[in-house]
């Protein structure tokens, strides 16, 4: 399908220069590369600037509660396995409010793709520290600086059993779109964390800050993303050098394959729920 077929008519409400624009373009590019029909695609999001992305793509969309995108996405996939389910969420939405759902849906290995917009700050609520903020960062709330350690989402995901873990950069749209394509093609829970500056509230982790540190693990040609210990070692790497690309890719059985679901709900003929409503009348 052509790229413009995924364009929504909704006006974009992000700040000029926001890293979310690059992620939006990369997502649309990935759908076009996969020739993914909008009517067979479901975007699920919670609350936050990242959660606005589904509004700007012509496809099915469900906006849920803060941190609760993953339960909805998991349910939709179980009810209709033929639906391509993509979660758009932020570092606060997914790792903070939604941290428990993040861990246990990885354990279940639900066949969904989760794109986390990581700007290392809470952008929608005006700049308090998020789980991925750097120690020492001063905000209006953390006026003396962040004292908590940074949440290492990639390492946690690999340790919890996630079979596809990747990191991209919102400025590198073509590379990011290729990563998202591979994540969508992966059968199981796939995590794509995207480093994206918040130009309004995070003056530390800027475009230049990321550009100086991010490097692609695949550039050498010798990196094997199928090796667990190597992937975990890369996931733990953070500082002057930050790895991106496909960090880990190791397929294993999905939740539905383990349960061997036979009669999928969307295919059942008797879907009359009027009796249920009458019971609660």
Label this structure with key terms.
16% strand; single chain; 8-stranded mixed sheet; Rossmann fold; globular; alpha/beta; 281 residues
Walkthrough of the structure:
With 281 residues, this protein is an alpha/beta fold. The chain has a single domain, classed as Thiamin diphosphate (ThDP)-binding fold, Pyr/PP domains (Rossmann fold). It contains ten helices and eight strands. An eight-stranded mixed beta sheet has the order 2-1-3-4-6-5-8-7, sandwiched between helices. It is globular and about 60 Å long. It starts with 19 loop residues before the first helix and ends with a helix.
Describe what is shown at a glance.
With 281 residues, the protein is of the alpha/beta class. The chain is 32% helix and 16% strand. The protein has ten helices and eight strands.
């Amino acid at each position: 399908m052509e790229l413009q077929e995924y364009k929504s008519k909704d006006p974009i409400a992000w700040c000029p220069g926001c890293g979310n624009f690059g992620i939006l373009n990369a997502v649309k590019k990935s759908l076009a590369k996969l020739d993914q029909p909008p009517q067979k695609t479901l975007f699920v999001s919670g609350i936050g600037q990242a959660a606005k992305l589904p509004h700007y793509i012509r496809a099915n969309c469900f906006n849920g509660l803060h941190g609760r995108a993953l339960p909805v996405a998991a349910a939709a996939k179980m009810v209709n396995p033929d639906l391509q389910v993509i979660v758009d969420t932020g570092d606060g939405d997914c790792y903070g409010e939604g941290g428990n759902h993040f861990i246990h849906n990885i354990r279940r290995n639900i066949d969904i793709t989760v794109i986390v917009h990581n700007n290392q700050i809470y952008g929608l609520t005006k700049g308090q520290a998020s789980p991925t903020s750097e120690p020492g960062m001063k905000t209006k709330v953390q006026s003396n600086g962040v004292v908590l350690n940074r949440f290492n989402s990639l390492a946690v995901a690999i340790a919890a059993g996630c079979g596809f873990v990747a990191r991209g950069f919102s400025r590198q749209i073509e590379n990011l779109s290729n990563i998202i394509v591979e994540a969508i093609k992966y059968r199981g829970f796939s995590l794509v964390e995207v480093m994206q500056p918040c130009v309004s509230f995070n003056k530390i982790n800027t475009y230049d800050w990321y550009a100086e540190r991010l490097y692609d693990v695949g550039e050498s040609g010798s990196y094997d993303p199928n090796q667990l210990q190597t992937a975990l070692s890369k996931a733990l790497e953070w500082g002057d050098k930050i790895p991106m690309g496909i960090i880990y890719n190791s397929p294993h059985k999905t939740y539905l394959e383990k349960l061997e679901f036979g009669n999928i709900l969307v295919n059942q003929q008797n879907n009359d729920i009027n009796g249920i409503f009458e019971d609660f009348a």
